[in-house]
Sequence to fold (465 residues):
Amino acid sequence: MAKIVKIVTPLTDEVVSNLKAGDMVGITGYIYTGRDAAHKRLFFLLQKGEKLPIEIRNQIIYYVGPAPAKPGYACGAAGPTTSYRMDPYAPALLDKGLKGMIGKGFRSKEVIESMKKNNAVYFHAVGGAAALIARSIKKSEVVAYEDLGTEAIHRYYVEDFPVIVVIDSAGNNLYETEPPKYAR
Amino acid sequence: MRKIEAERIKKKVKELFLRANYHIGEDVLTALKKAREGEISEVGCSVLDMLIENYKIASGEEIAICQDTGLAVLYVELGQEVYIIGGNFREAVNEGVKEAYMEGYLRKSIVDDPVFARKNTGTNTPAIIYTDIVPGDKIKFMVTPKGFGSENMSALAMMKAADGPEGIKNFVVDTIRKAGPNPCPPTIVGVGIGGTADKALVIAKKALFRKIGEHHQDERYTQMEKEILERINNLGIGPAGLGGRTTALAVNIEYTPTHIAGMPVAVNVCCHAARHAEGIL
Fold:
């Protein structure tokens, strides 16, 4: 097994620069959730030049809409959603200092260019491993857009949250480099 | 006539959606374990290990396998000798879905107006219900909570007969290539051939209910299934799209008669969490 790189949030430029595509990473600290509806709202606030309801500088946003928590659980099943739907909004957030995104699947050229420009990283979480991933979420609270239900912005406290660097800040992209190695 | 209370329909639907969301089929588990043995990518192996572990946790603790607990889709065979009393069929089904999702800690993922308001209905209803009237006095339910990461990778091609089996194979493989990591591979690929555009899609989704390892009765279609599966796994996309030999676990083809002028081909993709359940009243 590859070594796990342990990082804590908020991220620094140095930590982000040192993360390389293929690194297995365990994240500890606070991270924020956000998916389609929340991104749309954040994006429109930025367009109008208004303040966001959360400080995203040096933070990580996890693309997830969790299942409700059973009694006794901090969080319900919480695996990643497919990231490309957030692509139209992501560059504006990266320009505001967002350092990390957790999701699954392809990103647009625009997002990758913005990651390179802003020194940010895209982490892959394993889709469909939602009950397992939820075990590393120790605390969950809604911090914005409660009316959106599962799509509200939650703040999670996570410990050794399991991800892999899939696109690093230099633009190296496992989704492009790995499959050809196994193609026949 | 055999009388069936609407209340019993509600309870059965609820039970089936809870079961499907918590407990993965043995066929999927077996296929994943077999894939794990043959996987040569180190990352691929660790992804498959995570998935197997995830299924154990979800089943053991009765929590959702995936946070996307899906859009509730039902294929119902309604015996023509059944007389439903004490309520109406559609409402009973939707009540069953609602109770499963409200009481089972499952995510409510349905928005009413898809374009403008996109307001969550809060109950995970309405369900999509396909009903066939069949001989007999029973009701058979085949239900699936259909996740949208994979649903979004669906495709339809209105092909011509001259495209032949090669055209079909190329289209299916190409659809999975373009989907890459998005639908949570390893996937199960449903293919519907024939009918109209809509019918091809409906049977493509229904094909996802088939157990992994079972094939079409017609040897020519079985051959197509095997060949497409091999070509998909040769793409190298791998578990979670991070590279490897396991991109799909099965390709299931269903066909239905079509028009002399056409050959519709539909692809409906399902993530590895191929959740479905069946029950009879």
